[in-house]
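Researcher: I need the complex structure. Ligand is NAP. Inputs:
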Amino acid sequence: MPVRPDSIPASRAAQRLVILGANGLLGSSIVRHFAGDPHLQVWRLDRNQLNLADPLLVDETLASLEFDWLINCAAYTAVDDCEIQSGHAYLINGHAAGQVARICSAKGARMIHFSTDYVFDGAKGAAYTEEDPVNPISIYGRSKLIGERQVLAADPKHLAIRISWLFGPGRPGFPEWVVRQAASGQLKVVNDKVGCPTYSEDVAVWLRRLLALPRLAGGVVNVCNPTATTWFEYAREILRLTGSTVEPQPITMRDLPGLQAARPDNSALDPALFETLSGLRCRPWQEALAAHLSANGVAS
Ligand SMILES: NC(=O)c1ccc[n+]([C@@H]2O[C@H](COP(=O)([O-])OP(=O)(O)OC[C@H]3O[C@@H](n4cnc5c(N)ncnc54)[C@H](OP(=O)(O)O)[C@@H]3O)[C@@H](O)[C@H]2O)c1
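Model: Output:
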């Protein structure tokens, strides 16, 4: 299928962007924030236009485009399925990310690659900085770490942005699940995993700021809506904001049947480096969650 840009640049100085995984939770937020800007020329590619499982297609499609930045939001994100389809996980999250990064380098373009808090084992017991040693405990986490490493090995000017526990308008996520379960009167929520719920719309805003920085260095950077919480406390905040009187029942991850992958106990991220680089403050997840629920008409 021919790939056409969403918007034509107003001038030669316009930035040309390719967004992969454009239909995903994060990709759709980023597309919404970037497409339609007359100073940007945006190609939004979904899986139908560019299947990362097909290296020849990846080469051909990207060779046919001229761009300054490539934003990779595409990934195999089904954490439990990755344990079963490990070859596919390593291909999409690891090697394809590396292939895309090498193509970008050869074209003189920079790549922004999204990675995950699941590159950590969760044993630190406090929020992870970019300096902390990685030690993934699932195939998903390992495959994403391979992706990060291949991207940065292709060109030190590329950037891997680690994010965590995403929610947003693009796809139903944890807040939507909690509201649905609460409506049925039955809500059991995991209370032994800690992380930072992060709003995809905020990530899009933060990304925009990064792209506007005159001298953006490559490497790894964390972004999230601080501070750490459990899924249980996160659910209680959703219930409070939606005016629900349902009392959730705390459970442990072990109580959930059918999970294949291990999850870190505490994979909270520390966004201090990003805040220093960007001059922005990452608002608390409670504020971001309230904005999301009210934008979707479910806050009371
Ligand atoms: N969601 C989270 O809580 C979370 C947490 C930490 C990090 N991350 C990272 O953040 C990034 C975005 O995640 P997300 O939540 O937006 O994921 P998502 O909603 O699952 O979106 C991923 C996108 O990748 C596309 N994709 C999957 N396989 C592909 C393939 N073979 N070729 C091309 N595209 C393919 C999907 O296409 P379809 O639309 O066809 O399915 C989808 O649009 C990922 O790198 C993920 O690892 C996410």
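Model: Summary of the prediction. The chain has one domain: 15-229+260-295.
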